[in-house]
Amino acid sequence: MKNTSLCEHIGEQISGFLDGELSQQESQRVSVHLSQCESCSQTYEQLKQIQGAVSQAYYPNMEQQKMNAVLQDLTSKRMFDFAWFAIVSGVLISVVFGVYHFWLDSSIPLYSKVVMSLIWGGGIGLFLTVLRQRLIISKTDKYNKVDL
Fold first, then answer.
1. CA-angle at 72, arms to 69 and 78, nearest 5°
2. What share of the chain is helix, strand, coil (3-state, %, to 5)?
3. Which of 5, 95, 112, 120 minimizes the number of CB atoms within 10 Å of its CB?
4. C-beta neighbour count of 10 within 10 angstroms
5. CB within 8 A of 33, min separation 6: which ones?
6. What is the pTM of this model?
7. pLDDT for 106-137, tens place per residue?
8. Measured distance between the N- and C-terminal CA atoms of the chain, rounded to whole angstroms
């Protein structure tokens, strides 16, 4: 059976069929099509082999001591801190520069400046509130160091 639009549709569903994610009706439709179409059946078999090979792959876990050594590396910590400092500094400088020019632009009416400032101020306030809550929670979270 060589109906290219049907084969394309079934081809999109083969992965879901392999993973058991399709409804019963869709699974039956794919199963019937695979029994009648050699091209789609070959695609199914290839994906099945790939899925088997991936499931049998060995992924070694890093020893906890090595993991801690990597995470506690002083150079990495300093680079991480510098990167965050650079990002935050750049954003703050951009915001200050933008606000300065926004408020000095005489072509924008005062009411627009006030409304936009309130909207942006509220958004920044909400962001800082959530950030503060997350920082507090991260320090007191008893499940923070649980390995899953």
1. 135
2. 80, 0, 20
3. 5
4. 22
5. 1, 6, 7, 10, 40
6. 0.41
7. 899 999 999 999 999 999 999 999 999 988 88
8. 47
